[in-house]
Design brief:
single chain, alpha/beta, UDP-N-acetylmuramoyl-L-alanine:D-glutamate ligase, 9-stranded mixed β-sheet, 9 helices, globular, binds 3-hydroxy-5-(hydroxymethyl)-2-methylisonicotinaldehyde
Length: 280
C-alpha cells in the first residue's frame, strides 16, 4: 500500500556517470512531472557506451533482487516499473522477477527495450540479446522500441527512413504479436518536415509528430520514454503522452543544436525542464 497519493515509479536502468542517458535522464525528467522516481541500477558505467572508449562497467546483477526483496519487506510498492538499459542478458529474467515483487496490483510496466539504434546492436550485447529482450516486452503494458530495436526483435530487415506507412504498420503488427501491451514505436518519419512516433493500442494505429531537427544526440530515447512515463502517471492517455514526449524531445534537440551540440554529450534537457513542469 502506498502511503500518499503521489505516484511512484521504479526506474530500472544503468547509471552512466557521465553522458546524460538512462538514470541521469529518467530521474530529473520523471521528477519534473511530479512523480517520485525510485531506482534500481542495473550497472554503473563511467560513461555510456556510445562514443567513449575505455569506460568502466560494474555489473549490479546480484543486487537487483535483494533491493526488490528489501522493498517488499518494507511494504514499498510502486505504481509503475520503467525498464531501460540492462547490464546483461541474464538480467532480463531477474528484472521480470523484480517487477513481480515490487509492482503494486494494477501497476503499469513500461519496457523500453534499449539495445540498438541506426540498424546496429549496441556494443557489448550478444547477438541473441534481442530474443531475450522480447521476453521482457511480452510482460509489458507498454513498450517503446525504436525501429532498429523492433526489427531486431522481429527478425525483420532494418531500413533507413523516410518510411512508408506500410513498413511501419507491418512492424507494429509484428510487435503486437510479441506483446499484449500498447506500443509506441519511435523514430518514425515519412518526410523531411516531421518526425515522431507511431502508437498502437487495441488494434488501432495512430501517429504523433513534431518538427524535425536535423541533428542526433545520445540519450534522446531515454528522454522520450521518461517523458511518456511521467505523462502517463499524470493521467494522460497514450497518444497525449506520446505527443508531449515527442514535443519535449524535439525541443531538447533543437535547443542543443542551437547552443552546444556534441552528439555523445547528450541533450540539454535541463534548459527545457521548466516548460515540461508547466505542463503538469
Ligand atoms: O541511452 C541508452 C543507453 C543507456 N545506457 C548505456 C548506453 C546507452 C546507449 O548506448 O550505452 C550504458
Amino acid at each position: 500500500m502506498l502511503e500518499t497519493n503521489q505516484k511512484r515509479v521504479a526506474a530500472i536502468h544503468d547509471i552512466s556517470c557521465f553522458g546524460k542517458c538512462s538514470l541521469t535522464v529518467a530521474l530529473p525528467i520523471i521528477s519534473a512531472t511530479g512523480v517520485e522516481t525510485a531506482v534500481i541500477p542495473t550497472a554503473v558505467l563511467s560513461t555510456h557506451t556510445g562514443g567513449f572508449s575505455g569506460f568502466t562497467f560494474r555489473d549490479l546483477t546480484d543486487d537487483i533482487l535483494p533491493v526488490a526483496e528489501h522493498w517488499k519487506k518494507e511494504n514499498i510498492a510502486v505504481d509503475s516499473v520503467y525498464t531501460g538499459y540492462l547490464g546483461s542478458k541474464e538480467q532480463v529474467a531477474i528484472v521480470m522477477k523484480a517487477i513481480e515483487i515490487i509492482k503494486a496490483k494494477d501497476g503499469l510496466t513500461v519496457v523500453d527495450p534499449v539495445m540498438a539504434d541506426n540498424g546496429v546492436l549496441y556494443g557489448g550485447f550478444p547477438e541473441d540479446f534481442p530474443m531475450e529482450m522480447k521476453k521482457l516486452c511480452s510482460v509489458a503494458d507498454i513498450i517503446t522500441p525504436n525501429i532498429t530495436e523492433a526489427c531486431l526483435m522481429l527478425g525483420k530487415t532494418y531500413k533507413k527512413g523516410p518510411y512508408t506507412k506500410e513498413y511501419i504498420e507491418d512492424i507494429l503488427l509484428g510487435l503486437s504479436e510479441i506483446t499484449k501491451g500498447k506500443i509506441v514505436l519511435t523514430g518514425v518519419w515519412f518526410d523531411e518536415e516531421k518526425i515522431g512516433a507511431a502508437t498502437y493500442c487495441n488494434g488501432e494505429t495512430d501517429y504523433v509528430f513534431s518538427n524535425r531537427v536535423d541533428a542526433a544526440f545520445h540519450g534522446t530515447g531515454d528522454v522520450f520514454t521518461s517523458t511518456v512515463v511521467g505523462s502517463l502517471l499524470n493521467g494522460k492517455n497514450l497518444k497525449e503522452a506520446a505527443q508531449i514526449a515527442c514535443d519535449f524531445t524535439a525541443g531538447c534537440i533543437k535547443y542543443t543544436k542551437e547552443h552546444n551540440p556534441n552528439m555523445k554529450y547528450g541533450v540539454n534537457f535541463e534548459a527545457m525542464l521548466p516548460s515540461l513542469i508547466k505542463q503538469f
